[in-house]
Amino acid sequence: MLAGAVIRGGTLREDVHLDVDAVVVGTGAGGSIALRELARAGLRVVGLEEGGFHTSADFNQREEQMLPMLFQDGGGRASTDLAIRILQGRGLGGSTIHNTNLCKPIPDEVLQIWARRHGVVGASPAEMRPYFEQIERELSVSEIPQNMQNANNSALRVGVESLGWKGAPMKHNRIGCQASGFCELGCTYDAKQNALKVVLPQAAEAGARIYSNVEAQRITFANGEITGVRALARGDAGQGVANLKIRARVVVLSASATGSAALAISSGIVDPHEQLGAGLRIHPGAVAAGIFDRDMKSYDGIPQSYECTELLSFEEGSDRRCWIIPAFAHPIGTASMLPGFGAAHMSAMRTYSNLGVLTAMVHDETQGRVSAAHDGRPKISYSMIESDRQQLAKGLVACARLLFAAGAREVTIPAIPPIRLKNKADLDSLDLSQIRPHSVPLTAVHPMGGMRMGEDPKTSAVKSTGEHHHVRGLFACVGGLFPTSIGGPPQIGIYSTALRISKHVIERARR
Amino acid sequence: MRGPAISRRKLLAGVGGALLGASAVVALLRTSGYDVPDEIAGALTSLEPWEYVLLQHAARRICAPDRPGDRSIPTADDTNVAGFADSYIRTMSADLRSDLKKLIALVEHLAPLPLGYRARFTKLDAVAQDRVLASLESNDVALLRGGFAGLKSLIFMGYYRDPRTWRMLGYDGPRVGRPVLGW
After folding, report:
1. In this structure, which CATH number among 3.30.410, 3.30.300, 1.20.950, 3.30.920 belongs to the domain A143-183+280-444?
2. Hey, is the C-beta of A176 within 8 angstroms of any chain B C-beta?
3. Among residues 300-329 of chain A, which lie with CB inside 8 Å of chain B?
4. pTM
5. Shortest CA distance to B146 belongs to which of B103, B94, B181, B97?
6. Helix or strand or coil: residue A417?
7. Which end of chain A is more exposed for a tag (fewer CB within 10 A), N or C?
8. What residue ranges do the domains of chain B occupy?
């Protein structure tokens, strides 16, 4: 059903003019839900996806081929100071194609802070619960059983249990999982119950049309009202092949937190308080690697099925803002992360099969900013504040303690120079000031904010309904809506928020 | 009267940007004397021949074997890292591609100078090349450290994509086409 609804940009031979009720830019968690809900409401809706339309048959588990296919900038996107690598998806299904299926609703405490501090209405824990429950049902979310934990996840569980810390198995959206461990390169076995597999086919069945390989270049508006979108269809080599001019009364931005803000900014959307792109959070993370005497083969099996929440609290002002989960990579990812080069690096790579790796991800308070480059692509400025740096250091120390508790004989924190810990006692004398951006390689996979919701136009880009404060008919339906970090995997929060926002989009489109 | 405050981070980033820009200018002036076979030069899609040579040299050091003389370890040339980089760079956005080319120029022409080397990178011996690369990896200018990390990632992608490198890691490779366990 989905294939019949998708028009590949490269096949267009002439310019396209469309007149529809709504355009949804981006087809990930937020965009897929918006497309489906609008189509089910009987509206004429078109989706635009910058990336390609790929299926499980295309996901060949080769890093060097999947990275350029499934990630923005081939996986090389980074903050403007190059301190943080920021992994974001592209292609039909967005980041739900490459994510590792982690499912947690937005914590109640976070939703309460949004209401209390950011003036968000309609998204209290009680109001969001039905949306979370619906999405979890639709995506067949269930807990990963202990017998499916791979060696890396088991090591985290053993570490947690040994130290008497807080931890738990994770819930995922997968059915028929083959435990191959290649989730981050797209699922070869079609086991991910994601936007591509579940939601977009429903949208197509309800009548949505989707253009892949089509880049939205400008949102058009006049007299404070949306008038449509201009876009460019690209061929296989990235060359422009046709222009799309789409008239619509509603435009929904679902092109990631960064892409949505950049498109709005480059389109000249009215923004008197400079809220577009403001308040970006990303959950910056770094890793600690333990060398075990036993064969771990951490690349094998479900990548992330257990979490440690000992250092994670969502209360305001908390000094426990670190989420710890396993983080293993295939050879190219691992080689890029390990410090140094040459003979010493190759020797370190020989321990690959004996490594257990954990990441500490910061529930961040730093507020980055998205701006638009001359070609409209996002530029991401993010300078980690000291309290977040301290959280990162604390988290990495905790990762090292967990790895030692699980039996690691040595722990390395990839830094320049590398931090090598021979035993637990080394942790006591560790100089935590070494753990800082540009010294430790940082990665972020959860951009949030940039299109923050709230009732005050001075502190938010859009209303709680998702509609822009100053341009009627312009909505955001994306993780960019989150006024703060959520301290955990965002996909359930994005799908669910999109479900809530879609009701308001439908209401506007019908006026 | 004090001028506007500028943070060390911004200053260093500015220095990095200026160095990258200067390198690109130098590179424009010094692109002769590189020996690339015609069949390779003619097949390049993203890189200039001199950029290809620089990547070849950098890859040989970055992927240098830990057991010299062990013929079971594939070399950077065996795995055609520079050729892979040429095709990969084609998939990058124009901005990223431009930044990478500036970095290549910097490694070749400017990075050796602070260490007292007057020759360009590709004319240095292996020990000197290692010193230059190490100076970039630990450089005070954050932008250069970040740039080096990007270059290293590209080169390791070219190297560890090759199945011949997987045996020494104990990595079984993709599961596609092989039986899987399931649950």
Report:
1. 3.30.410
2. yes
3. 300
4. 0.94
5. B103
6. coil
7. C
8. 11-164
